[in-house]
């Protein structure tokens, strides 16, 4: 199965401010009682978006003007905490195709790449500029260019970085590693034979 | 050239370099549980793939199990579907499942070491971020997502970039009443919740040399809370003594060969690290969190921060945390009233955790109005506690003594906070809503500090409550 080459993502953006937004906040654990990832999108950021009675709290994702945004903007250490893939799955199923933040927690970052979700790192002041622009005009198109390593919006351009291994995987359509891992079967057998604890 | 344990284990398990520059890394031991594996088995079926090394894959059930009574079917149909799905997947793919009926069920990070599956010089992966626990044995252990679980199931390998290594020395001796939990909370406080991004932490120094395996596990467990994907301690005589005679440990002549191999994986003297941090054990006090991430910690005699004394970003974080925790700026943390006390979890749910609390809890009573629960991390821990009469000490004091599981650490089972209850907890995360109520509050601390909070009904200094220095 050929994977899409993800060289850029364009769309409207929404800013969810805050540092250290953890995976429990992205998807509370009680919504992980499932045997498929279907339907997780509706529980994204649930406890900060919804009151106990199911009514809306004040949250950017609840604002009509940001409906349909495909780029999520946030702060430092986004996605810290648990390894649950349910977090990036919820982000993707909600409709996001990319995340821009000041930094990412490692397991979350890797899980996103594996799902074809680019996670770009940008400077705080640059994220603030994008946020100001989309808050002023939620229809503004924001483009994440993985080849040029930049983000373009409303005539402005800011730099963005992405770990090279992950950028390579995304732009060359090999972000889901399973095909390549399976091709290594002979090498796996050889490596395993050198390790006594793996003997059957 | 001298190498660190991380480099040696990495090199021994590197299969080849992938097109994007990552390494295809052999994963010697794959641990799975009911929450993050069902979708991976689904993907495996979709691709018509088999499990590459079922004999190196081990399963248990921990997150969703009720701890008050295990009877199946579970009252929660979603939880019941998950345990049935795991049972089906293990049967279909020939995977050993430490189900309740085997007497070996428990939290995955307690079961692996207890069974002797976790061994030095190996690579381990599990769909759970606290997999770093297994590093206590000199293994390199990674928490992974579900798609990577699929990769490991299908190929016994995964794609990963090499980490840098930060050596963290804790020198000197810990003072009485200061525990492994305080050491890791102190480290995270100093280095930050994202200070470990891109690193594996190698813990060492006199404190780790003296630590038992269970203490080393407590520290390695929370490496991820400091942002480090893995954390480990070099294997030594303490490690080998722990492993000797366990069900999956090598036997007979194989034992000596294994120990000699394990020894060879330890970091070479004089090897270089990407970073070195040195901490004086005397600077570590009983530590508690006051905020909404594990790096927001203070010693028991400090005051919670006042946002007015910090600027910019940090002020916003402090304000957000204090508002959520309903704590007053600049107030002492000691004396804060608690509602719930929880001893358990993959961080502090081992025999020595309950044993140490029992030493001091005997003859004391849980304060009126406090709900106190003690949850052994595995059936094995539960049995040992019963043999030693430890469960009786907890029960007599007014704790509910439960059956093995993750329990109140993460609220995927019936053990949850209600409303804005405040919990003194020996677990690992104090995130907003972590313990099951969207407004529930968590203060992380060592098991003995939880016991002190339980008997006084407030956040308290266990050294005073239990006259620790006199014992």
What does this entry look like structurally?
The complex is a heterodimer of chains A (200) and B (471). Helices cover 31% and strands 14% of the residues of chain A. Chain A has 200 residues and is α/β, with parallel strands linked by helices. In chain A, strands 1-6-7-8 form a four-stranded antiparallel sheet, with helices on one face. A four-stranded parallel sheet of chain A has the order 2-3-4-5. The mean pLDDT of chain A is 97. Chain B is an alpha/beta fold and 471 residues long. Chain B folds into two domains: 185 residues, 2-Layer Sandwich (Aconitase, domain 3); 185 residues, Aconitase, domain 3 (2-Layer Sandwich), CATH 3.30.499.10. Helix content of chain B is 33%, strand content 17%. At the A-B interface, helix 4, helix 6, helix 7 and helix 8 of A face strand 1, helix 2, helix 3, helix 5 and strand 8 of B.
Give descriptors for this structure.
heterodimer, A: 200 residues, alpha/beta, 4-stranded parallel sheet, 8 helices, 31% helix, globular, B: 471 residues, Aconitase, domain 3, 2 domains, 5-stranded parallel sheet, 19 strands, 33% helix, 17% strand
């Amino acid at each position: 199965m050929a994977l899409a080459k993800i060289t850029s993502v364009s769309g409207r953006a929404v800013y969810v401010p805050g540092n250290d937004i953890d995976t429990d906040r992205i998807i509370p654990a009680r919504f992980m009682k499932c045997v498929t990832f279907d339907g997780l999108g509706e529980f994204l950021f649930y406890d900060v978006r919804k009151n106990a009675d199911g009514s809306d709290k004040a949250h950017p994702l609840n604002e009509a003007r940001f409906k349909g945004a495909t780029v999520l903007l946030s702060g430092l250490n986004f996605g810290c905490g648990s390894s649950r893939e349910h977090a990036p799955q919820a982000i993707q199923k909600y409709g996001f195709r990319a995340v821009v933040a000041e930094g990412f927690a490692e397991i979350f970052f890797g899980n996103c790449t594996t799902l074809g979700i680019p996670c770009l790192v940008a400077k705080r002041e640059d994220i603030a500029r994008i946020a100001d622009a989309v808050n002023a005009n939620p229809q503004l198109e924001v483009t994440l260019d993985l080849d040029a390593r930049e983000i373009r919006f409303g005539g402005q351009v800011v730099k963005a970085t992405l770990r090279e291994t992950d950028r390579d995987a995304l732009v060359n359509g090999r972000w889901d590693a399973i095909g390549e891992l399976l091709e290594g079967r002979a090498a796996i057998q050889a490596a395993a034979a050198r390790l006594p604890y793996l003997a059957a | 050239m001298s190498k660190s344990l991380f480099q040696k284990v990495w090199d021994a398990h590197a299969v080849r370099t992938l097109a994007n520059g990552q390494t295809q890394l052999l994963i010697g031991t794959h641990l799975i549980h009911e929450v993050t594996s069902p979708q991976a088995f689904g993907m495996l079926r979709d691709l018509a793939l088999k499990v590459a090394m079922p004999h190196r894959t081990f399963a248990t059930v921990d997150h969703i199990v009720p701890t008050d009574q295990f009877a199946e079917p579970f009252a929660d149909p979603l939880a019941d579907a998950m345990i049935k799905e795991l049972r089906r997947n293990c049967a279909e793919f020939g995977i050993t499942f430490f189900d309740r009926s085997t007497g070996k069920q428990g939290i995955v990070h307690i079961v692996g070491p207890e069974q002797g599956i976790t061994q030095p010089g190996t690579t381990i992966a599990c769909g759970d971020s606290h997999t770093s626990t297994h590093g206590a044995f000199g293994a390199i252990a990674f928490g992974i997502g579900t798609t990577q679980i699929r990769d490991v199931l299908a190929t016994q390998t995964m794609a990963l970039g090499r980490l840098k290594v930060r050596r963290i020395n804790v020198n000197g001796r810990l003072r009485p009443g200061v525990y492994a939990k305080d050491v890791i909370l102190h480290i995270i406080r100093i280095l930050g919740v994202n200070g470990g991004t891109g690193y594996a932490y190698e813990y060492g120094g006199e404190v780790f040399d003296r630590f038992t395996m269970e203490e080393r596990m407590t520290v390695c467990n929370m490496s991820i809370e400091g942002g480090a994907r893995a954390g480990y301690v070099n294997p030594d005589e303490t490690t080998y003594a722990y492993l000797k005679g366990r069900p999956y440990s090598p036997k007979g002549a194989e034992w000596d060969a294994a120990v000699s191999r394990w020894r060879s994986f330890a970091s070479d003297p004089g090897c270089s690290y990407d970073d070195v941090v040195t901490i004086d054990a005397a600077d570590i006090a009983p530590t508690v969190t006051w905020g909404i991430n594990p790096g927001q910690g203070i010693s028991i005699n400090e005051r919670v921060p006042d946002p007015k004394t910090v600027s910019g970003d940090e002020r916003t974080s402090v304000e957000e945390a204090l508002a959520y925790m309903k704590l007053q700026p600049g107030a002492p943390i000691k004396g804060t009233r608690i509602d719930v006390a929880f001893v358990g979890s993959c961080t502090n749910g081992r025999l020595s955790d309950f044993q140490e609390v029992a030493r001091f809890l005997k003859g004391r009573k849980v304060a009126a109005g406090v709900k106190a629960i003690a949850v052994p991390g595995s059936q094995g821990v539960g049995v040992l506690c019963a043999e030693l009469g430890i469960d009786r000490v907890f029960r007599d004091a007014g704790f509910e003594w439960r059956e093995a599981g993750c329990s109140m650490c993460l609220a995927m089972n019936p053990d949850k906070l209600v409303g804005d209850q405040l919990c003194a907890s020996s677990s690992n995360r104090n995130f907003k809503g972590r313990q099951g109520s969207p407004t529930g509050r968590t203060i992380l601390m060592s098991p003995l500090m939880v016991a002190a909070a339980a008997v006084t009904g407030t956040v308290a200094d266990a050294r005073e409550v239990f006259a620790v220095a006199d014992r």
